[in-house]
Amino acid sequence: AVSEIDRIQVDQAYIGSCTNGRIEDLRIAAAVMKGKRVAKGTRCIVIPATTEIWKQANKEGLLDIFMEAGATVSSPTCGACLGGHMGIMAAGERCISTTNRNFVGRMGSPESEVYLASPATVAASALTGFISDPRKAL
Question: Which of 29, 52, 58, 116 has the largest CB neighbor count within 10 A?
Fold first, then answer.
């Protein structure tokens, strides 16, 4: 439960990937982030799962909500999820992510930490800079 790890600082919040980058996921995250700003010192990356989802999210104004909040929005890619590019974690950094794996070194340095969570929890955490219950953000 989020309450068990509430207030752990995060350096990065990653919303999307092939597993939780569905249009429904992006709608939920955007509802949490609308009209708010990503916390200072926290990176937020949003990556829709497919080009079709990216287009639909753009049409619905979701991408604008993320960008206005201070998030970086990318076209679909396996970037940060596998530690390949864009959002690679450094030693000592923490990420909260909607991806499906968090084994050691998955998103970069083996000395980084990755917490898996729902799109709503990741969005709320991006706003506070700490792992946060999304119900408090709505």
Answer: 29
Check: CB of residue 123 under 8 Å from CB of residue 28: yes
Please indicate, yes or no, whether the overall pTM of this predicted structure exceeds 0.85.
yes
Number of domains in the chain: 1
Tokens found for residue 123: 């969005």
DSSP state of 38: P
Please write the tens of the pLDDT for every residue from 90-115: 899 999 999 877 666 667 688 998 99
What is the extent of the structural domain holding 72?
A: 2-136
Instruction: Write out pLDDT tens, residues 18-32.
Output: 777 899 999 999 999
83, 106 contact by CB (below 8 A): yes
